[in-house]
């Protein structure tokens, strides 16, 4: 008597459920890692702390991310992804490039203020001379998206005769980002140094006005 082998196949429902569970576990670990790395940095952000924050186990970190460095690369990619996702949601009217540029400037400054984890993790990576972000396969894609928003606005403004020709979107991005980043990353020491609370909404608003005015003065053709 010949017994035929039965092929056991997983139902799409079971496979889908496992995939969703795996994604949930990975996402939970990644969110926990961002919180821990932003508070303790790479050296102080131990796998034990991350596992505890994620209510998971160290072995799951190794399974999904390879090691601690791999997890830190993923954390960097995730904070950039969040930034780009938020920026992509901006409702820009390119028929009014000046208003669009004002909106972009406000978005960047407010995002840096409202997402201290973004600043903290980038501070840690800069202390490490960018050794992790350089391993990312998506870092360049993130920068293209971030600068692309400014580039489109700059092109329209130039075509309309509002913005000076010859300006590079990279330079405008660096101008906005550096002014916003420096303020947020140094706000505690600058508060003590200047004797003014840089976390005050009033002072932040004054700085936002100054940055906006400075960028537009750089862009606009003098009448």
UniProtKB/TrEMBL annotation:
Domain HTH tetR-type: 23-83
Signal sequence bounds: none
Biased composition (Polar residues): 1-13
Assigned keywords, A-Z: DNA-binding, Repressor, Transcription, Transcription regulation
Residue ranges for the DNA-binding region feature of this UniProt entry: 46-65
Location of region: Disordered: 1-23
GO molecular function: DNA binding
Record flagged with keyword Cell cycle: no
SUPFAM superfamilies per the UniProt record, alphabetical: Homeodomain-like, Tetracyclin repressor-like, C-terminal domain
UniProt xrefs under Pfam families: TetR_C_29, TetR_N
InterPro entries: DNA-bd_HTH_TetR-type_CS, Homeodomain-like_sf, HTH-type_TetR-like_transc_reg, HTH_TetR, NicS_C, Tet_transcr_reg_TetR-rel_C_sf
Domain of life, source organism: Bacteria
PROSITE patterns linked: HTH_TETR_1 (PS01081), HTH_TETR_2 (PS50977)
Name of the protein in its database record: TetR family transcriptional regulator
């Amino acid at each position: 008597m010949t017994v035929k082998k039965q092929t056991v196949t997983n139902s799409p429902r079971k496979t889908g459920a496992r995939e969703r569970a795996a994604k949930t576990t990975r996402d939970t670990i990644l969110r926990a890692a961002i919180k821990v790395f932003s508070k303790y940095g790479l050296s102080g952000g131990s796998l034990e702390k991350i596992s505890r924050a994620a209510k998971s186990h160290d072995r799951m970190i190794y399974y999904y991310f390879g090691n601690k460095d791999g997890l830190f690369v993923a954390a960097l990619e995730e904070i950039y992804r969040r930034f780009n996702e938020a920026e992509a949601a901006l409702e820009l009217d390119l028929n009014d490039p000046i208003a669009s540029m004002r909106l972009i400037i406000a978005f960047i400054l407010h995002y840096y203020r409202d997402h201290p984890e973004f600043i903290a993790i980038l501070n840690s990576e800069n202390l490490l001379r960018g050794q992790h972000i350089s391993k990312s396969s998506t870092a360049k894609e993130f920068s293209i998206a971030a600068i692309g928003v400014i580039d489109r606005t700059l092109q329209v403004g130039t075509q309309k005769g509002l913005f000076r020709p010859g300006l590079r979107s990279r330079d405008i991005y660096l101008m906005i980002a550096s002014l916003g980043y420096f303020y947020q990353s140094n706000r505690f020491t600058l508060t003590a140094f200047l004797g003014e609370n840089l976390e005050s909404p009033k002072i932040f608003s004054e700085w936002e006005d100054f940055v906006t005015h400075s960028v537009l003065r750089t862009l606009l053709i003098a009448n």
